[in-house]
Amino acid sequence: MNRPVVGVGCASTGDTSAALSAYCAAAGIPSIVFLPANRISIAQLVQPIANGAFVLSLDTDFDGCMQLIREVTAELPIYLANSLNSLRLEGQKTAAIEILQQFDWEVPDWVIVPGGNLGNIYAFYKGFHMCKELGLVDRIPRLVCAQAANANPLYLHYKSGWGEFKPVKANTTFASAIQIGDPVSIDRAVYALKNSDGIVEEATEEELMDATAKLIPLAYRTVVVSTAHGLKFTQSKIDYHSKDIPDIACRFANPPVQVKADFGSVMDVLKKYLLKLGAVLVCRIREEETICKAALPLLDTIMII
C-alpha cells in the first residue's frame, strides 16, 4: 500500500476482531470492525467493544461483511487485516513452526485445521513447507481441513474432485467462527491441500456438540490449538446439557440432578452415583489399555481443533 493509513480494519466472526482490537488498542491505532449482526456470541462481541474498536454491526453474513470491507479499504485509508493480506499469513505460519519445534522436529502424520475463510490451512502449509526447505524436517504432515456441514464450500469442492468452485450460502452453525460460504483464501487452501496430499472433512451440528462434551483419550498424542474457549459459547453448552437443542440427541449431556433437600434422598442418589462411578472406572481402565495398544502407530498424529 503506497498511501498513508489512519486505522486498521477487518471483517470478522469474532476471533479476528478480538485480536485486532486488542493489539490496536495497545499500539494506539484506531481499529474498525465489520461484524454480521446477531451471528456471533455476546462473549465475542464484547471484546472489540471493550478494546475501543469502532464496530459496525451489519445486516448481512460474514461473506457480506468481507465484501464490504474489501471495497471500503480500497477507497479509504484503512489497512485491511484479513487473510487477503499476505503479512497476516506470515504471522499465522509460525504456529506450524512452533508445533514442529515443540515436538523436537519430529513431523506428525496429520494436522487437522478448522476451515472458514481458509487462511489458516494455507498458513500452516506455508510454515511446514518452509521448515522442509530449510532442512529442519524431511517431510510435511498431511493436512486435513475440517468444516461445519452447514458451511462447507471447500468440502463440496473437494468431493467434486476439485471441479469448479461454487460458493454456498452458509447456514447457522454452532461453529459460528467458520460460518463462511465464500472464503477469500479458497485458491490458497486448495494449493495447500493438493501439495500436502490433504483431505477435507465435515462435521454435522450433532457431531460438533457431542465433541464439546467429550475428552480426548490420554493415549493420544494431541496438540489443541484453539481460540474457541468454552466461555465464548456458554449458551450453546447450557442448551446442550439441558437437552434443549431441537433435533440433537445430546448424548453426553450432564444436567444437574433434582433432589429433595433431605438426608435420605441425598444419600440414595449419591450411593447410586458411586456404584455407577465404580463400574465406569473399571470400564475406563480396560478401555484405556485397549486404546494404548491400538494407538501406538498413531502417536505421531496431531489434531488441531
Automatic annotation (TrEMBL):
Gene coding for it: THRC_2
Signal peptide positions on this chain: none
Alphabetical list of InterPro entries matching this protein: Cys_Synth/Cystath_Beta-Synth, TrpB-like_PALP, TrpB-like_PALP_sf
Pfam families tied to this protein: PALP (PF00291)
Tryptophan synthase beta chain-like PALP domain location: 6-216
Organism lineage string: Eukaryota, Viridiplantae, Streptophyta, Embryophyta, Tracheophyta
Protein name: Threonine synthase, chloroplastic
